[in-house]
Amino acid sequence: GVRAELMADLPISTSGMQAIDVAWLCARAGGGLALERFRGDHAIDVKGHRNIVTETDVAAELRIIEILRAEFPDHSILSEETAADTDASRGWTWVIDPIDGTKNYAIGIPFWCTNIALCLDAEPVVALTYDAVHDEGFWAVAGQGAFCGDRPIVASDKPDVFSSVLGIDLGYDDAAGARQLDLMREIFPNTQGIRITGSAALGMAYAACGRLDLYAHLNVSPWDIAAGILLVREAGGAVSDRAGGPMRITSKGFAAGGRQVHDDFMARYAGAQGGK
Ligand code: IPD
Ligand code: CA
Ligand code: CA
Q1: Is the pTM value of this prediction over 0.85?
Q2: Ion ligand 2: residues, Cβ under 5 Å
Q3: Which one, of 256, 180, 192, lies nearest residue 224 by Cα?
């Protein structure tokens, strides 16, 4: 059937593992290292206004890359801290964010994750968003549904923005963050709640499993969202860029979550906002 064919199309690693199992190995290595160091002091570098990186981001990323190089020597790697310029448009590419939610991580808020996706020609086909603090892994393989651990997950069935809890983040672009806040000001109080998560990747995973009904952002990078795109799709949700077009790993702005709330959000609030 379709399931077997999809599996057959996915690469097997040097040591005979499925790609999703290699993703788990990477997430436990990188996320585990970050968790060991979480409650300690963090050496911090400033990358840009509001944008920081700790030495653990880099160390976790190197651990992940070491595993990927051994298991899939022919694959490309696009990763936030050490290989951010890799062209992911062709072939097999692992898209990695060793710690998504670094600001939370650095100030001790236990809401961050390790984000890993395998893409074929820039389409995510294997996804894992791993929250080491809570030992929760949200994962999906194209065509096979989405899961949290061994439990299948589904996106929200809420009918509209009014009945929904929305997740957002502001990102590191001042204008995009301000537009996002303006939009929330327009929506509030006609919603059940608004959460600024501090981790776009966990925000998407929460939208995939219906904890959040919708998650939206206006300025992301491929490693923030590659896994989440597949998670939300496989969970039966909707994900689009902020012009309503198809979501790509290169999209800057997007909305992701339950189908109906997504469509209501786009039609009533965000459609004219652009932010592709
Ligand atoms: C950031 C987080 C944050 C989002 C930013 C991302 P980082 O990733 O996901 O929630 O608003 O746009 O860059 O820097 O913690 O890996
Ligand atoms: Ca990130
Ligand atoms: Ca990061």
Answers
A1: yes
A2: 97, 100, 224
A3: 256
> What is the longest distance spanned by two Cα atoms in the chain?
54
Rounded to the nearest 10 degrees, how much is the dihedral formed by the CA atoms of 74, 80, 83, 87?
70
Position 4 pLDDT exceeds 90: no
- How much distance in Å is there from the Cα of 69 to the middle of ligand 2? 22
Mean pLDDT value across residues 165-187: 95
Ligand 1 site, residue 264, Cβ cutoff 6 A: no
Strand runs labelled E in the chain: 44-48, 51-54, 76-79, 92-100, 113-120, 123-131, 136-141, 146-148, 151-152, 165-168, 193-196, 214-217, 238-241, 254-257
Instruction: Show Cβ contacts of residue 267 under 8 Å, excluding neighbours closer than 6 positions.
Output: none
What pLDDT is stored for residue 52 in this prediction?
86
- pLDDT category of residue 273 using cuts at 50, 70 and 90: low
The neighbour count for residue 146, using CB atoms within 10 Å, is 24
Ligand 1 proximity of 13 Cβ (cutoff 6 Å): no
| Residue 54 CA: distances (Å) to CA of 46, 47, 48, 173, 227 | 9, 10, 13, 20, 22
Question: Is residue 235 over pLDDT 60?
Answer: yes
Q: Beta-carbon neighbour count of residue 126 at 10 Å?
A: 27
Using CA atoms, how far apart are residues 166 and 191, in angstroms rounded to an integer?
A: 8
